[in-house]
Amino acid sequence: MARNYRKEYDDFHGTPPEIKKRAARNKVRRDAGLKNGDGKEVDHKKPLSKGGSNSKSNIRVTTRHTNRKKAGK
Questions:
Q1: What is the pLDDT of residue 72?
Q2: What does R_g of the chain's alpha carbons equal in angstroms?
Q3: Distance in angstroms (rounded) separating the CA atoms of residues 57 and 21
């Protein structure tokens, strides 16, 4: 069965809380001076899922590889 991206967006990604979260993530990335395709990501020292914030003291710029590897621990 093919994935219905339109329905997925309408049911989840297009809801106001998710739009707000996406805008916050994009703002942090812009504030850090990152561009699409540069191989860098914003890493939260204390993850948002564990009560962290998007404040400058909680973020750092890392390579994509390092940031994704951290999630496996």
A1: 67
A2: 14
A3: 19
Q: Which residues, in sequence order, are CB contacts of 28 under 8 Å at separation 6+?
A: 42, 54, 59
Question: What does pTM read for this prediction?
Answer: 0.71
E strands along 7-47, which residues? 40-44
Quote the CA–CA distance of 39 and 34 in Å, as a whole number: 9
Q: Identify which of 52, 51, 49, 56 has the alpha carbon closest to the alpha carbon of residue 33.
A: 56
Give the integer Cα–Cα distance in Å for 71 and 15: 26
pLDDT in tens, 42-69: 999 998 889 999 899 999 999 999 988 8
Type of residue numbered 63: T
Q: How far apart are CA 63 and CA 61, in angstroms?
A: 7
Provide the token pair at 62.
Answer: 């890392």
Contact 42, 28 (CB under 8 A): yes
